[in-house]
Specification:
7 strands; Chromo_shadow_dom; alpha+beta; Chromo-like_dom_sf; 215 residues; four-stranded mixed β-sheet
C-alpha cells in the first residue's frame, strides 16, 4: 500500500465519521419535534394575558397523552385557522369575549336574591332603629332613686349644695347624683339639673374620680 492510498483511506474514514455525527445530530433534532394530529379545545392562558392555549391530540399517541399547549408552540397556522373555522369563530373574537366576561365579573350587578336580602336587612335595620327611637322617647321616671329631685329641697337653693358624693346610672342610662346639702340633708338629683344650675360640685366630683393622662 502506497502512502497515497493510506492518505485516501484516512480521508474517507474522516468523511464517514463527520457524516455519521451529522446524521445522529439530525436524528436527535427530529425526535424532539412532535406532530399535532388535531386541536380539540381552547382556553385563555392563566399565565399570560391575551394568549390562547389549545388542547392537543398528538399523532401516534393516545388520548391520555393529550396536553394543553401555548399557541406559540403550534407551528401550523393552517391547522389553527381550520380549527377556528370549524368553531365558527376566531382567536381574536374569543379573546375579546373572554375580556368582556372578566369585566362583567368585576362589576357584577346584584342578583334578585341579593337585592331582596339587602331590602330585608334594611327593613330589619329600620325596624330596630324605630324601636330604639321609641324606647328613647320613653322618659325615665325621675323617681328612679329614693328622694330624687329636679329642684333643691324646700327652704334651700342650688347654692346650698355642699358636695356631690356619688354618681349613679339607672336602667335607661340616666345619670343621678347623690347630693349632700348645707343642712346635712342627702337627696338624689338628676345630673341634668346639676349641670344647669350647679355645675361646680359635679365637676369637682369628676376631677376627684377620673384618671387623667400625664402630659
Amino acid at each position: 500500500m502506497t502512502g497515497l492510498d493510506a492518505k485516501n483511506m484516512s480521508d474517507d474514514s474522516d468523511h464517514k465519521d463527520i457524516e455519521s455525527l451529522s446524521n445522529e445530530s439530525a436524528s436527535e433534532e427530529t425526535e424532539e419535534v412532535y406532530e399535532v394530529e388535531a386541536l380539540l379545545d381552547h382556553r385563555v392562558s392563566a399565565k399570560k394575558q391575551n394568549t390562547v392555549e389549545y388542547l392537543i391530540k398528538w399523532h401516534n399517541y393516545g388520548d391520555d397523552q393529550n396536553t394543553w399547549e401555548n399557541e406559540s408552540n403550534i407551528f401550523s397556522e393552517t391547522l389553527v385557522d381550520e380549527y377556528w373555522t370549524s368553531k365558527g369563530s376566531s382567536r381574536d373574537k374569543f379573546l375579546k369575549a373572554e375580556s368582556e366576561k372578566r369585566k362583567k365579573r368585576v362589576k357584577k350587578p346584584k342578583t334578585n336574591v341579593e337585592v331582596k336580602d339587602s331590602k330585608r336587612q334594611k327593613a330589619i335595620s329600620t325596624s330596630s332603629d324605630t324601636k330604639l327611637s321609641e324606647s328613647r322617647k320613653k322618659k325615665p321616671n325621675v323617681n328612679g332613686f329614693p328622694n330624687s329631685v329636679r329642684e333643691p329641697p324646700p327652704g334651700l337653693t342650688w347654692n346650698d349644695v355642699s358636695v356631690v358624693q356619688e354618681v349613679f346610672s339607672d336602667q335607661y342610662k340616666k345619670l343621678f347624683s347623690q347630693v349632700k346639702w348645707s343642712n346635712g340633708q342627702i337627696t338624689f338629683c338628676t345630673n341634668e339639673s346639676l349641670r344647669k344650675n350647679c355645675p361646680i360640685p359635679l365637676l369637682k366630683y369628676y376631677e376627684a374620680h377620673l384618671e387623667f393622662q400625664a402630659y
